[in-house]
Amino acid sequence: MKKSTGIISLVLTVAVTAGLLALAAVGVGENKTGAAKNIPLGLDLAGGVSITYQAKGETPSAEEMNDTIYKLQKRVEGYSTEAQVYPQGDDRINIEIPGVTDANAILEELGKPGSLSFQDMSGNELLSGTDIKTAEAKAYKDNLNNNDYEVALTLTDEGAEKFAEATAANIGSRIAIVYDGETISAPTVQTAITNGNAAITNMESYESAEQLASTIRIGSLKVELEEIQSKVVGAQLGADAIRTSLLAGIIGFALVVIFMIIMYRLPGVAAGIALTSYVGITLGLLNAFEITLTLPGIAGIILGIGMAVDANVIIFARIREEIGAGKSVKGAIKTGFQKALSAILDGNITTLIAAIILSLKGSGSVKGFAHTLALSIVVSMFTALVITRLVMNAFYALGLQDAKLYGIQKERKTINFLSKKNICFVISAVLILGGLAVMGVNGSKGKGALNYSLEFQGGTSITIPMNEALSIQEIDETVKPVVSEVIGSNEIQAQKVDGSNDVIVKTRALDLETREALCQELVEKFGVDENQIAIENIGAAISSEMRSDAITAVLLAALFMLLYIWFRFKDIRFATSAVAALLHDVLVVLAFYAVARLSVGSNFIACMLTIVGYSINATIVIFDRIRENLAVAGRKADLQELVNRSITQTLSRSVNTSVTTFITVAVLYILGVASIREFALPLMVGIVCGAYSSVCITGALWYVMKTKLGKKN
Question: Which branch of life, at top level (predicted)?
Fold first, then answer.
């Protein structure tokens, strides 16, 4: 690159980055297009509309209510992945959707029964979803004693007549099952079915059969809903949470850039420019794609920053190694990027695979987290591999060619990590088993193995008609302490209702005596009208189906990560070691949740997913170096020395990336409001645990598997 080209490249990069930040700050035109303030925010950060529906006619059964809630959850994700749907009493359903104000328009879409139909190949409707009485997944043994799966259908009397006629006319042809315009199955008719019972056979697994049965049940529900009230509610966390999170983000980002400059000198400056562009691009894309930003979404961005820093650290360490080996600065920059590429791509692609699976299979906050994470990963790779390289080459072209400006990696004495592997295994076992023991003790005492939040177990909703309008901060300072003292718990969610003085407080389930005591205290403290206080039971915002979706998504993500690592490293032991390390980190953080009795809700899911993404990236870097050293050393390599050398060579990366990510989260913990601190604390534990497992566990696990469970060559 010529000097003039270098100047132009650097000026354009800085100008574009500054332009993106300016766009995020003020926007363009009267509508402030592109401004960060236009990014859709979730209920926890900005509030939205709360609508209560009631089932028409007879009280629905528990199964009908659960299916209806799941159906609505899937549908409201079209408005926002962060929408919440939960039962209220026996026949009411409450929906909270961020960024929406027109309840009537939503009712028109959500209040109708599921649009399921059975159609012939010409698209003619043969029968509707309401003609299906039940749909159930079944497993059985075929004639060869192999497992087989099917969906058993029972039709109503009217449906049986329609189905008999339809199947008789379509023998040998397919009948498509269409839900909301999408064909979910198209079985071939084998014979006329006249007894009102049918089976969709040859399902690939019990899970796929259950999923199809659930969709058919959802589409065949006869529950009709009518709106009984709607209101616009304020943020659950309040404006103070956004302000402190923003301040924490700015301070944390500045500290990370300063740390990078101190540690890596001129390349640290290049990283600062690249990270700044990451922030600008991410804010712009969040705005462009209208991705709803919530507290879990912030976690996805934090992870993206960590991965962007990580990529730069890997590159800079490689450049230093090349300079230390005697290469020129120009050659070291080129080779450093080339050698760092595989570790960066493998680490980011592995995490991206997880994000895609979570987006496709998850629900609610899991899906929202996955969207933000996927976006952050793509942007972090771009900024590290393109912008950092562009800036580094520009610096060199401008005459900044002294090796001292880039640092020279001195040969490190290999640390014998594997000699301590048994101690590390014991420490990990004690932490995990200790956590499980605490969960068992808590469960036996009736406190619950974990401290499940309102989102997991439901509770009580109290609507308080205050005599004057209060801000969310005033509610936190005056109302919540009173409620907390009466119920004996700090787990309280509070929202204000726009356009009125009402305050909605959600707590754990309260018995009649506690409810009466709370009403009396509210009357005494605030002079409210006791007859106007409304108290109702509410169900879990995270339904059993959503939990099932989350578990399925995480398991599938782990499976696909394992397959990718196996494919890339050509050794199943790399993949199994990586997944085992992920499980280790998750269990250690779970133990921390149990011991510290932190609230387990949707933020818990986001925290765990963040740790999985962070941990796998750290593991890939070490495995990439082991793979590289194996290729050089050949089959006769001393595996113990090779693994120790690989961990030592990547030690600065492990430490520096952990420090920078920890700084970002620690500032969030120090400056954030209570709920944000409760979210940041386990993340900090996860970062420390991820660094520990990547250095002390993953390489040791691979070594043990390589030498004890397989051939040494």
Answer: Bacteria
